[in-house]
Design goal:
This protein is an alpha/beta fold. Helix content is 35%, strand content 30%. A four-stranded mixed beta sheet has the order 1-2-4-3.
């Protein structure tokens, strides 16, 4: 099995957990040599770069719908 994307899940990204959630995701991306990551949340959405790597923040329902359409 090949891994393409690191995925971190939290209910909400906020000032209290943002650093921790990003650190966990970037740590996994570095360890597994991945070029992109996703943070799944309840309803937040954004695209940004962390450490020069693309990170997508997406509501989990939207990610599930997209996954079901790609099968």
């Amino acid at each position: 099995m090949e891994i393409f994307t690191a995925i971190q899940v939290c209910y909400e990204l906020n000032e209290d957990n943002r650093k921790r959630e990003f650190a966990g995701l970037i740590g996994a991306m570095k360890r597994l040599r991945l070029t992109k990551g996703i943070i799944l949340t309840y309803d937040q959405e954004d695209e940004l770069k962390i450490g020069g790597k693309p990170v997508v923040i997406k509501p989990v329902w939207k990610w599930l719908v997209e996954c079901s359409h790609n099968q």
